[in-house]
Amino acid sequence: MPRYARSEREALADLLLTLGPDAPTIDEGWTTRDLAGHLVARERRPDAAGGILLPPLAGYAERIRRRIAARPYAALIDQVRRPPAWSPVSNRLTDELVNTMEFFIHHEDVRRARSGWQPRDLPAGLQSVLWKRVAMLARLALRRFPADLLVQGPGYGEVSVGRGGDRARLVGAPGELALFLSGRQRVSRVQIDGPPALAERLRAAKLGL
Fold first, then answer.
1. Is this model's pTM higher than 0.85 or not?
2. Which of 36, 95, 178, 184 is the most buried (most CB within 10 A)?
3. Residue 49 has what pLDDT?
4. In order along the chain (209 residues), what is the average pLDDT of each group of 10 residues?
5. CB 47 within 8 A of CB 4
6. CA-only gyration radius of the chain, Å
7. Residue from 29, 36, 28, 30 nearest 12 by CA
8. If DSSP states are collapsed to H, E and C, what string results for the chain?
9. CA-to-CA distance for 174 and 124, rounded, in angstroms?
10. Distance (Å, rounded) from C-alpha 147 to C-alpha 68?
11. Are 123 and 102 a contacting pair, CB within 8 Å?
12. Burial category of 181 from C-beta neighbours within 10 Å (exposed 0-12, middle 13-18, buried 19 and up)
């Protein structure tokens, strides 16, 4: 069985090491060092994980991330590459479920911050795994969007979301939809069919979890 979380992790670690600590990423204000610090904190500091979802803990989580990110860069990337077996999000039972989309998105955060990038030709198996995450994310991220919105991954599935109203359709490969729905609209290659004002609102919406 393919281990997509593992392969995306390895590819991202290789790219981070190649580019060095000061390369830009799609995450506003974050360099490659900052992103690596986030990944290590997420896996090795469960006490900081709540800051991702709970605003009152965000300051504490950010202080931990910055301390981790200040470590020697090569050692930091080695920790990205080799998560601890005890990690709640990266052990052998949770790795594929939790990390496939996480590492795909962050891999693209680095790739698409460089000039001349092009979408990768992803394996159908990875696209299928991403679609399952996309369907769930669409229901969460767009449940209150003021439209009757159909999210389609041709060949993989479709899901209806939104509160109703004008109709629109969001179409793309699962990997592109994953980026769009996680708040990376400006670098995702999707098609939006519907009223122009509604399409613009969707592209500018604060998406993700």
1. yes
2. 36
3. 72
4. 92 98 94 97 84 72 92 98 94 94 98 96 97 96 94 97 94 98 97 95 89
5. no
6. 17
7. 36
8. CCCHHHHHHHHHHHHHHHHCCCCECCCCCCEHHHHHHHHHHHHHCHHHHHHHHCHHHHHHHHHHHHHHHCCCHHHHHHHHHCCCCCCCCCCCCCHHHHHHHHHHHHHHHHHCCCCCCCCCCCCHHHHHHHHHHHHHHHHHHCCCCCCEEEEEECCCEEEEECCCCCEEEEECCHHHHHHHHCCCHHHCCCEEECCHHHHHHHHHCCCCC
9. 10
10. 42
11. no
12. buried
Alpha carbon distance 95, 115 (integer Å): 31
User: Nearest CA to 146 among 130, 166, 160?
Assistant: 166
Unique residue bearing structure tokens 């299928």 = 128
* Centroid of chain to Cα 1: 23
What six digits make up the tokens of 139? Answer: 């229901």
Domains of the chain are 4-111 (no CATH), 124-204 (3.30.1050.20)
**Amino acid, single-letter form, for residue 132:** K
Spatial strand order in the sheet of 157-161: 157-161, 148-153, 167-171, 191-193
Q: Are strands 167-171 and 148-153 parallel, antiparallel or unpaired?
A: parallel
